[in-house]
Amino acid sequence: MSKSSNTSSNQKEDFSYSSLKTNDTIKIEKQKKKLGKFDPQSSRYPVCLVWTPLPLITALLPCIGHVGICDSEGIIHDFSGPYYISVDDMAFGQPTKYVKLDISENEIKEWDKSIMKGMGNYQKMDYNFFCNNCHSYCAHVLNVMKYKGKSNYNMVNIWWMVSTKSKYVSWGRLFKTYFPSIIIFLIIYFIYFLSSY
Description:
elongated, single chain, alpha+beta, 6 helices
């Protein structure tokens, strides 16, 4: 009797334990479907493209910068060198502007999968400033996701989205973006002005 009772109690414990694991898994899956909090102070930009200036290059060409893409928790992923995707540590500093992407709650899980797949693919790739760069990586993620039903995004599309649809994080970050350019153009202007006399 004792053996059979012990067996039945063990079966009950196993059943309840497996049920608990299943319930926990369901809760985790539900949590994944919720967007993280938008919090620039913590560098959290859920389902966004983010942009930051490149040293010297952006000062000379203000429309050129470094781009990353964010998962549903807002963690930044950016292609910042050969075979390397930086995670939660954006190369060249904190973003100064961002583009909120049109991802529904039903697509969040697929979005995160697309970022992970894109990261896996680009960790096998060399970096080229002109033809396989941070913009290319972001375009690749959008293509994996088939964002808005398209799979032909490229670096020019990403540049255009950031140039025309972005918002600045704050007035301070706006100042950070353009202050070096203003200084350089003022120096050029005064050199030209003084040389004409």
